[in-house]
Amino acid sequence: MDTIQKEKNIALIKDVLRNYLLEKGFRNTPERYTILEEIYGMDHHFNVDDLYLLMMQKKYHVSKATIYNTIEIFLDAGLIRKHQFGEKTLTSSSYEKSYFDKQHDHLVIYKKGSDKEIEEIIEFCDPRIQGIKEAIEEAFGVNIDSHSLYFYGTKND
């Protein structure tokens, strides 16, 4: 993605956040926008500890409590997505930006011989899953807005 498109995307998600905060009556703080920009600058999943360390390294003055509170706002606003990959970390939830991303699924690969220590997370999109979704909608008379699918395993030698 080129620099101009990235800037347009950042401007758009900032507008989404601004409108959400106004609608919900929340304070419009610069820290929230800084956190949002850091998240949308990432190309991988993250947890609160990762984000906090990144922000400390960049000399931002933001508490971990502020990050936790802001994460909840971003989740509700549809700006990020929460995952629980089953990893053994201090903060067991992982997050990823979601506003521009299409629905996708995850293959979680654990390190061999570890107690659920993640080696790699592979995102994938398989058109057959869309067919399954449509069959479920028809069978149960529902409209599915989103889904999550996780496969867990280890690499073959």
UniProtKB/TrEMBL annotation:
GO terms for biological process: negative regulation of DNA-templated transcription; regulation of secondary metabolite biosynthetic process. Binds 1 Mn(2+) or Fe(2+) ion per subunit. Its cofactor is Mn(2+); Fe(2+). The keyword DNA-binding applies. InterPro entries: FUR, Fur_C, WH-like_DNA-bd_sf, WH_DNA-bd_sf. Signal peptide: none annotated. Belongs to the Fur family. This is Ferric uptake regulation protein. The lineage of its organism: Bacteria, Pseudomonadati, Bacteroidota, Flavobacteriia, Flavobacteriales.
